Amino acid sequence: MTEEAAVEFEENRAKTKKALPALLVVFMLGALMIQAFNLVFQNIGDALGMSSSASLISTLPGIVLGVVCMLYGTLCDFISPKRMTIFGMAALLAGSLVGFLGSFNFWIVLVSRMVQVAGAQVAGSVFLVMAVKYLNDKEKAFYLGLYNAVYCVAAAIGVLAGGIISSFDWKYLFLVPALSVVFVPLLIRNTPDVGERGERIDGIGIALFAVFAGLIAVYFSFPGFGLIVAAVLFAILFVLWIWKSKNPFLGRSFVTNGAFMSILLVQFLFVFFNYACVPIYNVIGTQIYRMPLTVISMCLALVYAISAVLGSLSGPLINRMGRMRTIIVSALMMIVGFAGSALLIGKGFAVLTVLACVFVGGTTLIYAPIYDAASDALPVEENGRGIGILDLMLNTSASIGIAVYSSLMASASTARGSLFGVGSGVSAQAANMFWIMCGIAIVALILLLVFRRNFTITRER
């Protein structure tokens, strides 16, 4: 690194450390609202005479979130973080105000939620890209862990507040993220205004990939053969564009980067059943132990609170133990938590709550070291694209996983019995599901050990 580059890096590093806490708060408010609207979407649909379409308030913003995670990370390689942040804050505030003022109309509410989610996610994407580009290794690991911890805190608050939110007029939920307006001056002042000099944005390539990602996301919410055909078509067009275009946003060096691709594969398996952890826990509580939803929600809040603590510790653990050992510990927590839940399915809800803390904690702890390893497997100028692809893989893998989970839980074959004396019915289904989750985690751990060298790459700064 030249002296001029070193000075520029230190300037951006100082600004970044001032901007990241504000970005984190904006991201947390957006993540909290996802949980809040997921809990009251049916109330909104009923109030506006659109009961049959109420689920769109949950599914469509989720699809938008999956696509923009990839899109924003990519754009951060070409557009300065400051400009991205200004755009995101403008979209967040516009979605909040229009949604509040237009709360009398279902379609205004739906579109406003999509805009609001898209705006809030800019803060999350810019946070991640700035952390991996402008901080040193120890700081990067700390902030990646903190990011995941804040997500867990937001999830815990959202789950715990489920019964409280419904007692308020739901339209005021739109104004909660608007509180982030107080951070606008700080973000404008401290977010680095650095883009890739001389780089042109590959609009066609980004558009092809975004449509492909969007079709995949839509398929897992609204399955249909036509969507698969369209997704395959756009995938082919995108591959042709990469190989024929002079300056594609994902060049050959990116897609042939064996270290990054192996990290992506390991991530795919480790996060495969992320979305299934909460619904299987709810099934156990309601159908096996006949517990009220309020008690289950409180237990889930405890699980996510403990996961948030583990997430906040992931950075120091990486700095002390290294990425590989941290990931191995995370994988073992998942394996023990899943296998223990399968074996002890009938031993009481308290025991299963402790085991849920173990396996959900493992899925939380694994986030930071994987993103840390991926950022060093790529040149710094491609970190935004790398973060975007990781986010897309996280959402896509978990979406496929929840589809597999739903299919297996609805299958009569999984209810006929399970290992180690578990009888038939829901208990057998849940136990078998936990064994499958355990098996996937074991396969991921084996692949991690096979590709271990790719997780220890350290990029010089």
Automatic annotation (TrEMBL):
Domain of life from the UniProt record: Bacteria
GO molecular function, one term: transmembrane transporter activity
Membrane topology per record: Multi-pass membrane protein
Segments passing through the bilayer: 20-41, 53-74, 86-108, 114-135, 142-164, 170-188, 200-219, 225-243, 255-281, 293-314, 326-345, 351-371, 392-413, 433-451
Record keywords, A-Z: Membrane, Transmembrane, Transmembrane helix, Transport
SUPFAM superfamilies (UniProt xref): MFS general substrate transporter
One Pfam match: MFS_1
InterPro entries named among the record's database cross-references: MFS, MFS_dom, MFS_trans_sf
Residue ranges constituting the Major facilitator superfamily (MFS) profile domain according to the UniProt record: 19-456
One GO CC term, this protein: plasma membrane
Subcellular location: Cell membrane
Record bears the keyword Lipid metabolism: no
UniProt-listed PANTHER family: MAJOR FACILITATOR SUPERFAMILY MULTIDRUG TRANSPORTER MFSC
Identification of the protein by name: Major facilitator superfamily protein
Native source species: Bifidobacterium margollesii
Source lineage: Bacteria, Bacillati, Actinomycetota, Actinomycetes, Bifidobacteriales
